[in-house]
Write a structure and sequence with these properties.
This protein is mainly beta. It has one helix and five strands; from the N terminus they run E-E-E-H-E-E.
Length: 97
Amino acid sequence: MQAVVIEGPGDISVGDLLDPTAGPGQVVVEVGACGICGTDIHIADGDLSSARYPVVPGHEFAGRVVAVGSDVPEQFSPGDLVAVDPSLFCGRCRACR
């Protein structure tokens, strides 16, 4: 897959990355639309000390589920349209704790 990659402050390119696979409890989403926000700009400028490069920007996105790993709730199936906000969390599951 192709993606924008921020290799470091001021070092931005389009590169080829391996297609992701769905592990246990995960889904793979084919991105249909993606927003770039202020956080991404701060990462690109080197103003976010917590950034761990390389970074693929665009954590606000929507698309279609294309793969479902084991242990994923039955309500998620390939073909489902989804919107992703990785800042939301339940506080209870292993990933959120």
